[in-house]
Write a structure and sequence with these properties.
heterodimer; A: 246 residues; mainly alpha; 68% helix; B: 104 residues; two-stranded antiparallel ribbon; 5 helices; 2 strands; extended
Chain lengths: 246, 104
């Protein structure tokens, strides 16, 4: 492992992984911001989702449903269901960090895929704590800055279709799904849910096919047998720093 | 305020409430393998569904247009281990190119 001589005490393995994840994840808020305004939300609405909802998958889901002509209620449903995994992350972080009082309220807001994965990748409790806060706060700050940059860029681009922004949304969702397809079972779940979605599109109002697929996936997970951590992976893998946590 | 604003704020409140739930509920209640598993499969199913809806849904019709090119190009980029932002740009470029060439 390369030594950073300038700031040896600040850069531990956990803070390095946390900050590299923060940069990689923060940057893709550019695509969220641009897609948000292309979906028809205004700058303040796009920013409100990053500041307050702050869970990337759910934010993409919300604007994805709106962009497809779905109702705001259906967008709320898809975003909320996609956020359910954060409750599981909350339990994991509570067990690792035992935050109290105000810290608990702050920790909850930055409890997302990336901060949980950074903490869980460490074995030393002090490193877990550093990893969680550096990734969580780092992603929060950069995610919100790049959301504004993306929204302004989206506004400047004009006709979203001419720039292929609808294709960007497709790529973004595939990119979020991809790291979770590590074995046969998640691939099977994804395939069945994709088929259920296509079948539901002509039958129910826009946005609702996503909720049909959610039901299929939830029933599959609750009643089926298999590993308990399927689908709980970070959106952006710390590839450049992989292996440094040990 | 518009209806959209209210749903945005409700979504934000729900997202924070769910996150906080993990910290507040006694471990015994939520630490249930079935619930953890359902939360994970739900995530996979929703993302797969969102990918397909954004690719082929056109209102309540299924349409194959430039967005299919974006899906294929993004898949290739992911196979080549491209970072997320590159995947998104590749998807946009493929859709824009397909449309420029007169498809969808």
């Amino acid at each position: 492992m390369a030594k950073l001589d300038a700031v040896p005490s600040l850069m531990t393995p956990a803070t390095k992984i946390g900050s590299s994840i923060a940069v990689a994840t923060g940057l893709y808020a550019i695509s969220y911001g641009a897609l948000g305004v292309a979906a028809g939300l205004n700058l303040w609405q796009v920013m409100a989702l990053s500041l307050l909802m702050f869970t990337g998958g759910s934010q993409f889901a919300f604007i994805g449903v709106i962009a497809g002509g779905g109702s705001p209620g259906a967008a709320f449903g898809a975003a909320t269901l996609l956020g359910v995994r954060n409750a599981v992350y909350g339990m994991q972080i509570k067990a690792m960090l035992r935050p109290n009082g105000l810290k608990k309220l702050l920790a909850a807001q930055v409890t997302i895929d990336e901060s949980t994965a950074t903490a869980a990748g460490q074995s030393d409790p002090a490193e877990q704590k550093r990893g969680f806060w550096v990734a969580g706060i780092g992603v929060y700050v950069l995610w919100n800055i790049f959301t504004v940059a993306g929204a302004l860029l989206g506004d400047a681009l004009g006709d979203p279709k001419a720039w292929g922004l609808d294709g960007a949304a497709v790529a973004a969702f595939l990119g979020l799904l991809w790291p979770r397809l590590k074995s046969a079972e998640p691939v099977a779940i994804a395939t069945v849910c994709a088929l259920a979605t296509v079948l539901a599109i002509p039958l129910v109002p826009p946005g609702v096919p996503i909720l049909v697929a959610a039901l299929v996936a939830g029933v599959w997970g609750y009643f089926g047998r298999g590993p308990a951590t399927e689908g709980l992976e970070p959106d952006v893998e710390p590839r450049a720093t992989r292996g440094e946590s040990e | 305020m518009s209806e959209l604003w209210w749903w945005i704020l409700a979504g934000c409140a729900a997202a924070y409430g769910i996150k906080l739930l993990g910290y507040l509920v006694p471990e015994k209640i939520l630490e249930n393998e079935k619930m953890t598993r359902a939360a994970g499969t739900l995530t996979i199913g929703l993302l797969a569904s969102l990918t397909i809806v954004n690719t082929v849904a056109s209102g309540t019709a299924v349409a194959f247009d430039a967005r299919v090119a974006a899906l294929l190009a993004a898949g290739v980029a992911l196979l080549l281990r491209a970072p997320f932002l590159v995947v998104v740009i590749v998807g946009a470029g493929a859709a824009a190119l397909a449309r420029y060439l007169g498809w969808g």
